[in-house]
Write a structure and sequence with these properties.
heterodimer, A: 438 residues, mainly alpha, D-Maltodextrin-Binding Protein, domain 2, 4-stranded mixed beta sheet, B: 303 residues, alpha/beta, Rossmann fold, 6-stranded mixed beta sheet, 4-stranded antiparallel beta sheet, 9 helices, elongated
């Protein structure tokens, strides 16, 4: 068997079958799901304490009824405020809502009072405010003799629908850019994470080999370049496996949790975060349908292969640099920072540029950084969903692959010298010298 | 004519500012047991790394079986570095199979060979164990199997006995001699002279990157001998010899005589026999490699 293949196989198998890999691969999705479930539960957890609230409605706007909540019951009192307050200790009321008479219909501000031994929780406050506001609105409409339907007609929702000028372009809808942004952002993030996690893994593995001196045995059988390349490809395969497992496992587990616990994690989350949808269910359904249509309209057959190419380019570029650094440093992980910093800074910069690029994908910042090979593996995938000009993608990809190949070559030269050198800490200057060594 | 398996001509290797190997030349006949000697830091490891294609020489020629050194030759060599190393988390069986396959063996061949060796060393039950579970001496054994599993023509051992207990050292030594009998050529790199004297037929002595001495162990010893003879007596004896003999009475039972150019050992023995002494032993004192080593290295270092 080809030696490179053998090395790749070992690097891959030995990692994939290791306990820590299996644990992290399986436990991470579990942890994510568990975390989501717990967060959802926390947010959806309202007060479980039953509250009875007395209402003294002097304004007579509440019409003798407020819709009760799960744990919140309203009782209308005919008695005056003083009488209710004096008898409160003997009653089961936890508070008294006092709605004073309305003096002026045109008043923009109106105060109601809540008497209680304990301050009411925020959610109760909001609910009471909402009820009174609605009631007062209806009251005002009647008092001012307005037409309810006309007033409803005043609220208009504006939809900005983008249309292409020429007919042969795909018609995109208002959701296109939002969906593209989400897709772009996720792609950029996946790139960022994988480059970091697996690049570091390559570096640690190179250091380990150097430290336990297996490297001398290995190099007497194979070329250093083969060993480095085999490691990079093997670890890359591990990365792909892990990401693939997560991509499949996380949605499946979310679905299972949803079925078992009977909670809708996704919608509950949005409600919990305060984004109470103000559109009706029909609207919601239309949105989902539109989103699905948009989702299908995205040219996945183009984006996914392109993403893979950028992924490979970015991974090879950065992990080869990490391998070179790993070969140059000794046993001390702390020593490595001066050499890893120049690698990590561009990755982090690229992440920020990527986030900016998703907002304005055709800005000159986005366009230039998606050409620059150290940024392009993270920035360009984020732009892909926005249909950038094809020549930009092609140029960016060419530059990236060219640079990645060049970096792999350079790193191979550094690696070859570095792994056999012990005891000395190498700086940038040495690394450059090694590249040019015969 | 004996075949030459390894031929080094004026090999040079420079590191940063230091010349590690300075125009070293020697020839290694097939089937020899060859000692590569030198003090620490003399350039032994640098030289071995060149032979095993781990690094390339900056100048000079290395021929393996008459061909310039190439990648494929590494499959014909087995190298046990001084600093042993294995993947600690790997299972022993998998590890050995992996390294053997990297040396060009098929999986099947590797498995057959490995089974043979593990049975021979009675360590078949180690197969599923991890390297890190083994003691240092046990790892040493594994490292030795790694080196020879692919039946190399040239076996290079850097300090092969360091860290081994006498029993295991003997075991390994016997295997080395066995391999040699079956046609393998051996290079022994060490600074422990007594081991070399025991095993090696030929040596090259390296100091400061250059070879200072080479040849057959017997020839070297002969060329360094001082015509010093040792005579033992079974009863206390005070020896009197003619003036021309340089006599040294070591104790009541032993004398040493240094012979001059025109004096023969036979004549000396004749003198002693004539005196009717109780001689229990008579032998020539040959310098040990250790002494030669110290003499040569000390000499060149003082320049």
């Amino acid at each position: 068997m080809n030696k490179l293949l053998l090395i790749i196989k070992r690097e891959y198998i030995s990692r994939v079958t290791s306990k820590s890999f299996i644990l992290t691969t399986l436990l991470t999705p579990l942890a994510i799901v568990l975390f989501t479930a717990v967060v959802t539960l926390i947010f959806s957890y309202e007060t479980d304490e039953i509250q009875n609230i007395a209402v003294v409605d002097e304004a007579k706007i509440l019409d003798g009824s407020i819709r009760d909540e799960e744990n919140l019951f309203f009782h209308f009192e005919k008695k005056s405020l003083e009488e209710v307050l004096s008898g409160i200790e003997k009653s089961s009321y936890s508070g008294v809502l006092y709605v004073p008479a309305i003096k002026e219909v045109m008043e923009k501000q109106y105060t109601v009072f809540y008497y209680a031994a304990k301050q009411p929780g925020l959610s109760i406050q909001f609910k009471i405010k909402d009820r009174v506001e609605d009631a007062l609105r209806d009251f005002k409409i009647v008092q001012l003799k307005l037409d309810k339907e006309q007033i409803a007609a005043l609220d208009t929702k504006i939809i900005l629908e983008p249309e292409p000028i020429s007919k042969d372009e795909v018609d995109s809808s208002r959701l296109t850019s939002a969906i593209a942004a989400v897709i772009g952002m996720s792609m950029g993030f996946i790139m960022y994470m994988t480059v970091f996690i697996y690049g570091m893994m390559v570096m640690r593995s190179v250091m380990e080999e150097k430290m336990n001196r297996i490297v001398e045995v290995m190099i007497s059988s194979v070329k250093p370049f083969q060993l480095m390349l085999g490691k990079i490809i093997g670890v890359g395969g591990v990365g792909l496996t892990q990401v693939l497992v997560w991509v499949i496992l996380v949605p499946v587990l979310l679905l299972i949790t949803r079925l078992i616990m009977g909670i809708d994690l996704s919608t509950n989350m949005s409600i919990a975060q305060g984004a109470t949808p103000d559109f009706n269910p029909d609207d919601m359904q239309a949105m989902v349908a539109l989103a699905m249509k948009e989702f299908n309209q995205i040219n996945w057959w183009l984006i996914v292969p392109l993403f893979m190419l950028f992924f490979l380019g970015g991974y090879f570029l950065y992990s080869s640099l990490f391998a070179a650094v790993g070969s140059a440093i000794g046993d001390d992980m702390g020593e490595s920072s001066s050499l890893t910093l120049p690698i990590t800074i561009p990755v982090i910069l690229a992440l920020y540029i990527m986030m900016q690029s998703v907002e304005s994908p055709d800005s000159s910042l986005a366009r230039w950084s998606s050409m620059f090979p150290l940024f392009s593996p993270i920035v360009m995938p984020a732009r892909l969903a926005f249909n950038p000009p094809w020549w930009e993608v092609a140029l960016s990809l060419t530059l990236l692959i060219g640079t990645a190949m060049f970096f792999v070559w350079i790193s191979g030269r550094i690696y070859r010298v570095g792994i056999l050198l012990y005891g000395k800490k190498a700086g940038m200057k040495e690394l450059v010298k090694w590249v040019f060594m015969k | 004519m004996t075949q030459i398996i390894l031929d080094l001509q004026e090999v040079v290797k420079d590191y940063d500012k230091k010349r590690a190997v300075d125009k070293v030349s020697f020839q290694l006949p097939k089937g020899a047991i060859f000692g590569l000697l030198g003090p620490n830091g003399a350039g032994k490891t640098s030289l071995i790394r060149i032979i095993t294609s781990i690094t390339r020489a900056d100048a000079g020629v290395v021929l393996f079986n008459g061909e310039p050194l190439q990648e494929k030759h590494s499959e014909r060599m087995g190298y046990m570095p001084e600093e042993r190393g294995l993947y600690k988390k790997m299972k022993i069986g998998d590890h050995l199979l992996y390294l053997a396959q990297l040396k060009g063996l098929s999986y099947k061949e590797a498995k057959t060979e490995l089974t043979y060796w593990m049975e021979k060393f009675e360590i078949m039950d180690w197969w599923p164990k991890k390297i890190e579970e083994l003691s240092k001496g046990m790892q040493q054994k594994i490292q030795f199997i790694v080196t020879i599993l692919h039946k190399p023509d040239l076996i290079i051992l850097d300090e092969p006995f360091s860290g081994l207990d006498p029993i295991n050292a003997n075991l390994i030594k016997d295997e080395i001699l066995n391999l040699n009998k079956n046609g393998a050529t051996l290079i022994f790199s060490t600074h422990r002279m007594e081991q070399v004297e025991e095993i090696c037929e030929e040596i090259v002595l390296i100091n400061n990157g250059a070879n200072v001495l080479q040849g057959k162990v017997k020839d070297i010893k002969n060329s360094y001998k001082e015509n010093l003879f040792n005579v033992d007596f079974s009863t206390p004896t005070q020896v009197v010899l003619p003036e021309e003999y340089a006599l040294k009475q070591i104790n009541d039972f032993k004398i040493q005589v240094k012979l001059g150019e025109n004096q023969s050992s036979n004549a000396l023995l004749q003198h002693l026999l004539n005196q009717n002494l109780n001689i229990s032993g008579f032998n020539e004192i040959l310098p040990s490699l250790n002494e030669i080593f110290i003499r040569r290295v000390g000499q060149s270092n003082s320049f």
